[in-house]
Amino acid sequence: MRAKALGAASDALEWRLTSERWEKIQPVLAAMAAALETGDPDALKAATAELELVGPVRIVRIGASPVVPPPPQVRDRLNQLVYTLGGTTAREPDESELGSSSS
After folding, report:
1. From CA 34, how far away is CA 32, in angstroms rounded?
2. What is the dihedral of CA 77, 81, 84, 88, to 10 degrees?
3. How confident is the model at residue 56, as a pLDDT?
4. How far apart are CA 1 and CA 72, in angstroms?
5. Contacts of 5 (CB under 8 A, 6+ apart)
6. What pLDDT score was predicted for residue 102?
7. Which residues pair with residue 68 across a beta bridge?
């Protein structure tokens, strides 16, 4: 389940959605984070499925709201989830992180 959640969060970093859809994703990301904190695989599975459903659609109507990459707060939350799930985040590590090891 963690691998599926990692894939969904990593994919979401590349999505381009309307601002309204990004707002709908924020509570889903909070639910994923809470599921990871509590170690609840069922909640993680449900939140991952929800994230996939809120993702981009293939057809965009003419005159629809413009699509944009994730806003900073969503990008930060996605990066945190990707890191927690064991993936590589989209941001570059700073020098202090390069010299440290995790336990």
Report:
1. 5
2. -100
3. 83
4. 26
5. 32, 44, 47, 48, 81, 85
6. 46
7. 17
Which class for 55: exposed (0-12), middle (13-18), buried (19 or more C-beta within 10 A)? middle
Residue 69 φ/ψ, nearest 5 degrees: -70, 170
Query: Helix crossing, 2-12 with 72-84: angle to 10°?
Result: 150
Confidence of residue 97 (pLDDT cuts 50, 70, 90): very low
How many other C-beta atoms can be found within 10 angstroms of the C-beta atom of residue 28? 21
Question: Are the C-beta atoms of residues 79 and 91 closer than 8 Å to each other?
Answer: yes
CA distance 43 to 36: 9
pLDDT digit string, tens, across residues 23-57? 999 999 999 999 999 999 999 999 999 999 988 87
